[in-house]
Amino acid sequence: MAVRAAVAGASGYAGGEILRLLASHPEVEVGALTGNSNAGSRLGVLQPHLTPFADRVLEETTVAALAGHDVVFLALPHGQSAAVARELGEGVLVVDCGADFRLSDAQAWQRFYGTPHAGTWPYGLPELPGARAALVGSRRIAVPGCYPTAVSLALVPAYAAGLAEPEAVVVAATGTSGAGKALKPHLLGSEVMGSMSPYGVGGGHRHTPEMVQNLSAAAGERVSVSFTPTLAPMSRGILATCSARARPGTGAEELRAVYEKAYQDEQFVTLLPEGAWPATGHVHGSNSVQLQVALDADAGRLIVVGAVDNLTKGTAGGAVQSMNIALGLPEALGLPAVGTAP
Amino acid sequence: MAVRAAVAGASGYAGGEILRLLASHPEVEVGALTGNSNAGSRLGVLQPHLTPFADRVLEETTVAALAGHDVVFLALPHGQSAAVARELGEGVLVVDCGADFRLSDAQAWQRFYGTPHAGTWPYGLPELPGARAALVGSRRIAVPGCYPTAVSLALVPAYAAGLAEPEAVVVAATGTSGAGKALKPHLLGSEVMGSMSPYGVGGGHRHTPEMVQNLSAAAGERVSVSFTPTLAPMSRGILATCSARARPGTGAEELRAVYEKAYQDEQFVTLLPEGAWPATGHVHGSNSVQLQVALDADAGRLIVVGAVDNLTKGTAGGAVQSMNIALGLPEALGLPAVGTAP
Amino acid sequence: MAVRAAVAGASGYAGGEILRLLASHPEVEVGALTGNSNAGSRLGVLQPHLTPFADRVLEETTVAALAGHDVVFLALPHGQSAAVARELGEGVLVVDCGADFRLSDAQAWQRFYGTPHAGTWPYGLPELPGARAALVGSRRIAVPGCYPTAVSLALVPAYAAGLAEPEAVVVAATGTSGAGKALKPHLLGSEVMGSMSPYGVGGGHRHTPEMVQNLSAAAGERVSVSFTPTLAPMSRGILATCSARARPGTGAEELRAVYEKAYQDEQFVTLLPEGAWPATGHVHGSNSVQLQVALDADAGRLIVVGAVDNLTKGTAGGAVQSMNIALGLPEALGLPAVGTAP
Amino acid sequence: MAVRAAVAGASGYAGGEILRLLASHPEVEVGALTGNSNAGSRLGVLQPHLTPFADRVLEETTVAALAGHDVVFLALPHGQSAAVARELGEGVLVVDCGADFRLSDAQAWQRFYGTPHAGTWPYGLPELPGARAALVGSRRIAVPGCYPTAVSLALVPAYAAGLAEPEAVVVAATGTSGAGKALKPHLLGSEVMGSMSPYGVGGGHRHTPEMVQNLSAAAGERVSVSFTPTLAPMSRGILATCSARARPGTGAEELRAVYEKAYQDEQFVTLLPEGAWPATGHVHGSNSVQLQVALDADAGRLIVVGAVDNLTKGTAGGAVQSMNIALGLPEALGLPAVGTAP
């Protein structure tokens, strides 16, 4: 019996990626597709790569349209998920790709998003300690942000093992799809091709409190995160370079052993062999994560670099993986493990 | 019972793409991987995106290594397939991604490749008239060249319907993976990014006789092809702009109707709605083809533009699709229908 | 004594490129900058690369603002130049980068632009037969379109020498800056990177009649042009692949000799040695043009491939070069001859 | 009277960029061009964009070939400059783009380069405190590395003003031309387009001791640098994200004021207005540097982001700028101040 899934926000990049994955998910049947400003349009016009759904017409995002499905994926602007979720009923699995239910710290939410905190849902990053168990059988899932996905997988093992001082420095490059389909001049192809630039420098990016939350939980103390996002001339992918002062006595072998152990049973996270480096191209379109670790003895820092596809593992893949867990399906069902390289 | 497949030439782009597809093919189990200059290396080093096969070690390309499989994919330099195929036995399905068995015209082969003609195998482009039937049950398959895949799908219906004069003009842009992994200065990232250039201008490209063959077969008369390939700043994808003088009396509606009919039952070929244009990004990593047709009344020409992924539908996807047909499996098994866009 | 220049439309790509060139032009002093929707903004915000003019504030595009300059560059939407030019006085050199005064065929103008024809000005492509002489001392210049610049330089010698049949087929790839700074979804970086697509297929592109005009003038008979523009994943550059049936008896050496002779005295046009191919990267940011010719004996066609930078030689460079000629300055003054490669 | 300049290593990216700049330098006449493995080849084949020098033939890099020039630019592999320089005579200005004479710490040289230290020459980054004065009249110049150019300009003012703790963290993205023209698989266009990856993680990059040297000199104490270089999908450009713990009491206004003062008289370094971010595209092909500063109060760090063109300001532009100073020419002569954007 197929799981019936609706996608709210099907005209955006996150919604489109969810549909790309669902198109080859053997247990899911795609139901309603909604999108407010594009309601009434054929999906073939809005998302020309989604051939199997080309003739579907987008509906308004209403509870009526989304009702009657087993799973509802929400790919909506921040702040809109709570109202929809409330109406959908407790039996429906609601997978929220927005930020609304990611943070447990109401104050941090308020400060970065400026609206009242809506609550906290089980966190859709099963590779974090304790996260998978919380997803089993859940009917509400908060899919992590794309940057926090990469950064948390990169640094949580070091913090959980007590190897790092609680001041992390993260510089991450993202493909432009991370900024969505918004029509802004700096996102034009002419501006981004052949050019790299930072944005939100100095602590303002909304994904920062989510990183602080995950790393602090692992460390058992508050971890500060200096986060600088940069825009790279590519459509997809996040390369996160994460570092922290190593706790005295931390050795390179110990560091490596901690990561090997942390991910030895994870099918989507690969600690690369020494000498190999993560590349976003290697995980393009896949749910896979590549990590590498290093200890810089001169600078006294441990460095972890992680590569993910921001739209797949960083959004839609994480959402489908978490859905699989929640519904008791095989965790990897319908998820590409191999990136489309070169 | 799984089909056991070997891949000869697993370290190149074609071989890697075959493995990417086989990794999620539910009926195939991957056996031997070979690669001459890289024999002895772990695949994880050569193809870091192929995580599920990272620990496999490449063997020399010998008949001994390839024996004992149900299917052998050959992704070898031109001229090497015949010797291998001869030894493998008639019961083994040999799928050749090289050029050796694509041409029926021994003279054209000799002229463009400079070696004796090895023969002609059933042609792995099932969407061409008669091709699918010839693949059923076959134990030898010649996978088409990437350019001829795009150009033949774009122009065969027009020629088969008698709409076009027998002088085709084709200008196609390819991603750099079409040139393989060879270490040539003009393929360096620094040279290709932000730059477009032609090559093999004036009729020299080896895919030209293959296009002539397919279009002539459809037209029932010899069709000349003026073919200019260009190198585009992208890794994958072919955009083929194909045109010919329209036969007198050809109308835009008739043209469109011919293409609608030609591909109405083909799951991988989409004639886009009027006003929509093919884009290689839409078919990235998928086995899909996007086509659009137009009639230029002023110039008296019909124009057909086609987009394919040179490595997927243009090579490995075409190979797997043809294998599925030859073995009696569902034709689309294991083949992504949705491109990884954006 | 410096020439005082104003730029109308300074916030767009064409206007910005004019300013980039004028910044290092030893005889020009930049005066008023205008731009309607951006009037009141600092140029540093709109064009962050134009450091020397960062503090300039854009004015409204009015005759008052543009008056009192020796040269006025118009980089305005089509149809706006005539009104401005009329008011500026006959003594002011008006260099129009728009289409308004390019076409001599009022009917063709009307058909492709839908407004009454404004007239015809001396054509700013000095390398065409007779064009340079018409620019000397002129106070009105119509800068050619970017595609017609590439295509005319590529095909005019063949037509002038009677080597080609009067049916040209042109497929050209352009960088996205050719489409301007307009906020359209298909111009987003996420959409264009890694993807090629055509547009305006079938004869609709507005640059077509300009090509027809130039090629017909050279041929002495009407030449039809089948023109397919494509959008390439790069910011700048046009690669135009142009072909036509060769007139009977045309030889490869004769073809080459015609082009050598046509451009032997042109400092910005290079016929590459045999075996070398034009690349847009080689002319990036420069006023240079690279050409290569070939004769395809099998297909009976001559092929000429040309590479230009659409913003430099294709727009702003052509404008400055023509200004230099009109004002009696050295033709190459302030114009980069060497592309920024790699 | 023209300055006569020779370029050793004219077939590489650094040598080619020196020639691009010299082609429009009004006081320089280009003499001998040398290049060992390419001796005997025409430059037009090796560097097709350098049209004005297309017919020049490369000589072997010998003292005989380089003698008789006023200036000799060395763009040679590390370790080869000392021997050449020794023979050229003290009256010749030798501008070394290699690393040989950049470091004053012989031990650091030995550790990172593995050969005996050759000495220390005046450092070609005139914007550093004291550097310009040391270049005036000098006949030996060590051009900085591309990364140290960006990082030193970004962090020296903060260290000189005592605002930062002596542990810097730098993550920088470079275009692939930074890796030179070497034929390595990971530099192929197919590998780098659409993909970001790190390299030399953990302190191994040879530019690290040069950064340590410059920052320590500014701070008056040893500054450690944790440096992670990454390869971005673009040909040119470095975006360096640099941070350090802010010394207690450092305020955002003070930080900004320090940078404003440091660069107020520098024509090639721009501190962007608040809210604007550096982009490598803005400085493409130019000698300009864009900087922005921020204070992250939560994380207690100051962040400085800098954008340079690795080949221009980061190599050839810095070399020509330093030559101008050494020879008493206007510092900006022949140097583009405006990047080729978009």
β-strand percent of chain A reads: 15-25%
Characterize the biggest β-sheet of chain A. 7 strands, mixed
Share of helix of chain A, binned: 25-40%
Number of helical stretches of at least 4 residues of chain A = 11
Description:
The structure is a homotetramer of 342-residue chains. The first copy, chain A, has eleven helices and twelve strands. Chain A is α/β, with parallel strands linked by helices and 342 residues long. The first copy, chain A, has two domains: 3-144 and 315-327, Rossmann fold (3-Layer(aba) Sandwich); 147-308, 2-Layer Sandwich (Dihydrodipicolinate Reductase, domain 2). The first copy, chain A, has a seven-stranded mixed sheet. In chain A, helix 4 links the parallel strand 3 and strand 4 (93-96). In chain A, helix 1 (13-22) crosses helix 11 (312-327) and helix 7 (146-160) packs parallel to helix 9 (208-219). The radius of gyration of chain A is 19 Å and the shape is globular. The two termini of chain A are 37 Å apart. In chain A, 65% of the residues are buried. The mean pLDDT of chain A is 96. At the B-C interface, strand 6, helix 8, strand 7, strand 8 and strand 9 of B face strand 6, helix 8, strand 7, strand 8 and strand 9 of C.
